[in-house]
Amino acid sequence: MNIDLDSNLNVPLDQPPQLTSDFCLSLPLSATVSWSAQIKPSVQHSFDTVLVKNAFFFDPVLQCLIPLSSSQGHSSLIIGKYRILKLLRWIQSGEVTLLPFFARLCLPRSSDSDSINTGYRTFNAFCSALVAPLIDPNKSIITPKSFRQAHLEKIKQSLAGTLGHTRSSSFWKRFWNMDIPLAIRTPWYRLLHRKFPNAEQVQALVPNICDSHCRLCGDPSTPENSDHFLFRCPSKLIIWRLLWKQFFGVHDVPLLDIANALYNLIFPRQKLRLIQNDSIIGCAFLGIWKAHWRFIFDNTPFDSMIIYQQITVLITSLRSDTVLSAM
Prior knowledge:
Blueprint: H1 5-9, H2 21-25, E1 33-34, H3 41-45, E2 56-59, E3 64-67, H4 68-71, H5 81-93, E4 97-98, H6 100-105, H7 113-118, H8 121-131, H9 144-162, H10 169-177, H11 182-192, H12 199-205, H13 226-232, H14 234-248, H15 255-263, H16 277-298, H17 304-326
Antiparallel strand pairs: 1-4, 2-3
């Protein structure tokens, strides 16, 4: 099965890849594609357990990723064979598109080695910033002692930052019992531990990689902290207000109510019978989270109305699953 990526996706050959092939082969297949509205969420989620390496391999001659079935036959597909073949047909027909970062890796590389190397600078700089604190300055390598000392220091800093924000066991029991999408549980957990990845947090760790301001607002004087990332940004606040109006009957939600739901698990009064309010907030969190990072990494426009509609579809899907499980 041959996939004409260059004509379908308009990805220029002279554009260097941003991530390595080895790294992308370890990603879930669902993280490399953009789904059309016709494909049900349940079908989309079925690809979460299939890795890219189960469907693609690196061709050393072409210096790019190609589908396993295109040169080695369908017998080379061991895991998720029928799902993968179906996905490749969708890509061929244009029903599903590959995200730009992955599509570029499926195109032959430029012969200009300087152009190739340029594609890794940002990613390598980020990795170097993470590794540098672990290196023993006397030996210029990561020794067991330097690794242990660096991590002990990080643990001390982490404990110092959370001593005044400990939560009760009942709070955590409530959190783990919430019926929310699995993909948002870790980001929410990190938010509650003040380890949520936002521009301000990343800039503090690796100053040379990104600025601390909000890319959506485009104002260098507006820092992107956790509050701004989630609901204070005007483009995201629109989504919360629409959801609060539809599901909770509140026309102008106070920012404090949104903050209480996210940080303290204090939700509005229950009005719907088939879905819990924590599930609604979790779906909203997930929709904003995914849309934000697609805007950052793939330049996908952040359209508040489209994201709001996607969240309502996710809520409807979660409600249907709840009804089916209760039958």
